[in-house]
C-alpha cells in the first residue's frame, strides 16, 4: 500500500525544513508556507522512502529524509522516468508529475557522495504541479494514476 508518511516545507530560502502532520496544499502556494511553492512545474517535490533507504544504504549512513529537502515523503513506490506525466493522488490532493528532482551540489555539501547516489533511477524524487487544492495528512493513501 502506498501512503504519505511525512510532510515538510522550507519557510525561507536555504532555511531548515519544518515538519508538519497536516498541510494545506494549493495551486497558488504549493505546500502552505513553502518558500518555493509558486505555480509551475517544480511546485512540490515528492520523494520515495524506499529509494531514500537505498541511498542511505549505499552511503552507509543514516540520514534524515529532510536532508533531501523534498516536501513529501511517500512509501510503497519507487519513482522512475515512466512516471513523468502521470497523476499522483494523495488523499484528495492531485499532483501532476512533471519530471525528476535532479540532485544538486547542495546534496554533496549535506553529505559526501549524496549527489552521486541520488542520480540513478530518479532516486532524488519527482517534481510536481498542484492540480487541485486539498488538505493532506500523514497517513493519507497515495495512488499513481495514468
Automatic annotation (TrEMBL):
Signal peptide: none annotated. Residues 17-145 form the MOSC domain. This is MOSC domain-containing protein. InterPro entries: MoCF_Sase_C, MOSC_domain, Pyrv_Knase-like_insert_dom_sf. GO terms for molecular function: catalytic activity; molybdenum ion binding; pyridoxal phosphate binding. It comes from Shewanella canadensis.
